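We treat protein structure as text, and this decision shapes the records that our systems exchange. We quote a single record here, exactly as it is kept in our systems:
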Amino acid sequence: MRLTFLLTLALAVPLGAADWPQFHGPGRDNHSAETGLAKEWPAAGPPVLWTKAVGQGWAGPVVAGGKLLVFHRVGDEEKLEALEPATGKGLWAFAYRTRYRDDFGMDEGPRATPTVAGGAVVTLGANGDLHAVDLATGKARWHRALLADYGADKGFFGVAGSPLVADGRVIVNVGAKGAGVVAFDAATGKEVWKATDDAAGYSSPVLATLDGKATAVVLTRDGLVGLDPATGAVRFTHPYKPRIRESVNAATPLVWNGDVFLTVSYGLGAALLRPTGAAVEEVWANDRSLSCQYNTPVRVGEFLYGAHGRADGAPPELRCVEWKTGAVKWARPRFGPASLIAADGGLFALTAGGELVRFDASPAGYVERGRAAVLGTPTRAAPALSDGRLFARDGTKLVCMNLK
């Protein structure tokens, strides 16, 4: 059997065991190695250690090097702040002017969660401003204006895919002609390579080993692309795009045991794909199993857990689905969109309605252990779990909760 595993940024830069340095955690798979977490909590929810007012945005918090990083919009600036995780005390701030305006009157803050690697914090703003900021001091290292540099389109809801840092390269789905995916030198911001004509989706790329080779796995607006992270050479492609134009590819691909799981919604649904060289075999595909609009499901063992349905329709139901077949094991109606983290033998869900829920990771059935309202509506940013603390935010407030 081919060994496939999600590579983490720990391969490139030493990180603390409790770090949550990027979107969806160390392995970009929403898994945490934390233990000793409370199995249940009071009706009021886990103890709140501190709260902080924040600006607009859907970018999730990250934790690395003893700092909590928050990326949000305050007035006409996109702002990156470093805080003490235990207290919320400010350490430094970096800000720049943004002119992003949402075509649909929605939140106008940054969408992409920062990535920490090589002693830098890499951010991508809603208008395509790509920055590298020194983690220790908050001083800018370099900047690229992606929409201006490449003539790319901001898309329906702004630029949103969180940057991937792999082997000294920052990889972004830019979405321009001849520059669908671009890699930049992490130290200087200079272009290293560019590949494909694919438009930009809202999904974030992941790094995986497929057929014994490190591979940047990217779900663009047009479909799945596997790239050599060092050169940009295209290893495989697979079209995966809804028929209707008013749609997005947003959930992050999941890679396990040589297979790649995609979920899109908009009548397309999910697929389990098996790349072998340049060929891509479709193991199963349908719109009935787990059709996630923008939240990425979590795999625990042989099963997937995620929110099935669109946020702009009937409330999505939480489902448990078998990885290898797509068979639905159980469904919890009207659960709503939710960001999920697998930790300490269970699952934590932060719903779009601002509720934190703990339930069992079991295909036998849905067993809820705790539920509490902790934030307002809508809550779209993915949370971070570090050193027993859960950091979560909505459009106005950041909260730190003790899960131990």
